[in-house]
Amino acid sequence: MTHDIKNIVHVSHLKKSFKSLEVLKDVSLDVREGEVVVIIGPSGSGKSTFLRCLNRLEEATEGEIVIDGVDITDKKCDINKVREKVGMVFQHFNLFNNMNVLRNLMLAPVDLKKKDKETARKEAVEMLGRVGLADKADAYPHQLSGGQKQRVAIARALCMRPDIMLFDEPTSALDPEMVGEVLEVMKHLAHVGITMVVVTHEMGFAREVGDRVLFMDEGRILEEGAPEKLFESPENERLKAFLSKVL
Predict the structure, then answer these.
(1) Alpha-carbon distance 243 to 40, whole Å?
(2) Rounded to an integer, what distance in angstroms lies between the CA atom of residue 225 and that of residue 212?
């Protein structure tokens, strides 16, 4: 059965201020089902704040955010229901150190989705396999490398069977030699058609995996386009200056 690819994320005129500091200044974006959108830009440009607004970890000051047909800026919206569909992977892994890897993965599906433990366990094992850590089910977080912890965090998000995955600089806390293993997992997710919005400093990943790359600075999207267009022939002067430093 074919159906039109729909916009799974619709952001319109989003603004976000912290007291007098305006961090997001009129950001609009649509993300289509199965699309990988990569957001690049200097530190402090509003990228992470934008991502956090997409599952209401930050409240928008103005504007509209519709995720999978639900306006999450509506005060009546049950944000926890929406978050079941929106997986989030942070810079720091936020794993529970007192639980082994398997229990970390089973926790949310059992608590929030009321899955029975056997089903949750099976799915957790499957997701660990997907991120190449099938042998670490019984390990505790302190026994894992940074790259392994981040892959566990990705598997944990996948256990909720989300419609969309948000990644907030998922490799920035890792030692350089561990970055590749996390990016490989993310490439695999992109390959199997999971909708992703990724904030990253990894330009190679943005170029290789992104369907679309956005350049943000000072709370605005200054340029967006296909990776080859953005990296090979940028139009915005600020983007040209940024790329000359990072490439």
Answers:
(1) 10
(2) 5
Question: Which residues of the chain register pLDDT less than 70?
Answer: 1-4
Beta bridge partners of 36: 196
Angle, in degrees to the nearest 10, between helices 146-158 and 176-191? 20
Range list of H helices, the chain: 47-53, 79-83, 101-111, 117-130, 146-158, 176-191, 203-209, 227-232, 237-246
For the entire predicted model, the pTM comes to 0.93
DSSP classification of residue 141: G
Cβ atoms of 223 and 215 closer than 8 Å: yes
The CA distance from 125 to 109, in Å, is: 13
Q: Which is it for the CA torsion 189, 34, 153, 181, positive or negative?
A: positive
In the three-class reduction of DSSP (H, G, I as helix; E, B as strand; rest coil), residue 105 is classed as helix
The answer for residues whose C-beta is within 8 angstroms of residue 84's C-beta and 6 or more apart is 112, 113, 160, 162
Token pair of 207 as six digits: 């170029």
- Token look-up 């199997």 returns 192
Q: Is the dihedral of CA 151, 157, 163, 166 positive or negative?
A: negative
The predicted pLDDT at position 2 comes to 47
Tell me, what DSSP letter sits at residue 169?
A: S
Give the burial class of 132: count Cβ atoms within 10 A of its Cβ; 0-12 exposed, 13-18 middle, 19 or more buried.
middle
Residue with tokens 């989705």: 113
Q: Which of 157, 231, 237 is nearest to 194 (CA)?
A: 157
Which of 216, 174, 240 has the alpha carbon at shortest distance from 38?
216
SS3 of the chain: helix, strand, coil, percent, to 5: 40, 25, 35
| Tokens encoding 202 | 């990894």
Model confidence pLDDT, tens digit, residues 193-238: 999 999 999 999 999 999 999 999 999 999 999 999 999 999 999 9
